[in-house]
Amino acid sequence: MVEEAASLDALKDLRPLGQLHDSFIIAAGRDGLWLIDQHVAHERILFEQVLRASESNQAERQSLLLPIILPLTPAQDAEYPRIAEELERMGFEIEPFGQRTLAVKAAPAGIAAGEIERVLFEVLEIADQELRKATIDEIRRGVAATVACRAAIKINMPLDMVKMQWLLAELAKCELPMSCPHGRPIALRYSLREILRSFHRI
Amino acid sequence: MVEEAASLDALKDLRPLGQLHDSFIIAAGRDGLWLIDQHVAHERILFEQVLRASESNQAERQSLLLPIILPLTPAQDAEYPRIAEELERMGFEIEPFGQRTLAVKAAPAGIAAGEIERVLFEVLEIADQELRKATIDEIRRGVAATVACRAAIKINMPLDMVKMQWLLAELAKCELPMSCPHGRPIALRYSLREILRSFHRI
Fold first, then answer.
1. Contact A28/B35, CB-based, under 8 Å?
2. B180 φ/ψ angles, rounded to the nearest 5 degrees
3. I need a surface site. Which of A34, A79, A115, B181 has the fewest CB within 10 A?
4. Which are the contacts of B169, defined by CB distance < 8 A and separation ≥ 6?
5. How many CB atoms lie within 10 A of CB B146?
6. Helices B74-89 and B116-130: crossing angle, nearest 10°?
7. Using the beta-carbon criterion (under 8 Å), do A17 and B18 form an inter-chain contact?
8. A80-131, pLDDT tens digit by residue?
9. ipTM of the complex, rounded to two decimals
């Protein structure tokens, strides 16, 4: 536990050195070497941002030139009203559009235009499968996780030094910077002690 | 064995990213992440250079402004003639200087002036302890290892990118680039496969 706290502290002054395979940020820390999965790190940052924005009703939104028309399954149609308010709080602007159909007129600012339909599809899929047994908080987190995952930078994407520094600084501000909303690890750490031992230096 | 050969091949196009604690070079390779101990890497490079120079009698030497005067123990004095030729081949120029005493007038070019006396002291210590049972080849390797260790860059020393690139390129040319003359590891490797698995990506 002490070690974990020390690690979180070390996260604050990580020095990015470069990327491995355009996917993992390699960084030097006072406690050793860090590898950071750029996608899940950004996912964690966005997840916390989306949740905060939704709680304070201050989501940034983008208006769509043409609304996206979404047909619903009967189950989705029945459950949609329960998530409508959450979607609104996160930056969606959605109106009914005839029978079992929605028109999406705006979406959270972070999601690329081409991804919006897919995000909603995944959110409604959660609704379809889990809505009946989920609490409002679980729904909120599920929607935020889906939005964050879709909006986050991908792996196999080159990042410049400024972007890497930004990502590490934002990650350091997170409440839970060590694992993504789905529980995958964000960082691998090779402690200096472990490295020195492997080199037979202690 | 195949994996080892593939690794040696990957060593040829390592991309240095920076240093960890001014001691270990962090490099991205096509097979994953490498950490290289800068001292032992340089030691290996110099060891092979010194051996080659000694075999071809082409060691570069530095003349000393003032000769270094070295008193010998009786055992060292008795065994010195057996290593005299090796020392000469490696770039030393040493003459008898009265009873049980040597005058060092030149030394291999790579050794800092302040280190020369210590190198000879260590070489004569080998002579003192092991000379009687050592073959000429063992003596040669022992002397070369001592010279290389003393001349190599140390840990806790900042290196710029050009120096790191040079070190990795020279290491890639070595016959045995993975361990130092004393058997310590030069490189730690974290394979891409291992990294992907730790991030739950495979």
1. no
2. -80, 165
3. A115
4. none
5. 24
6. 120
7. yes
8. 888 888 889 889 999 999 899 999 999 988 888 888 888 888 888 766 666 5
9. 0.83
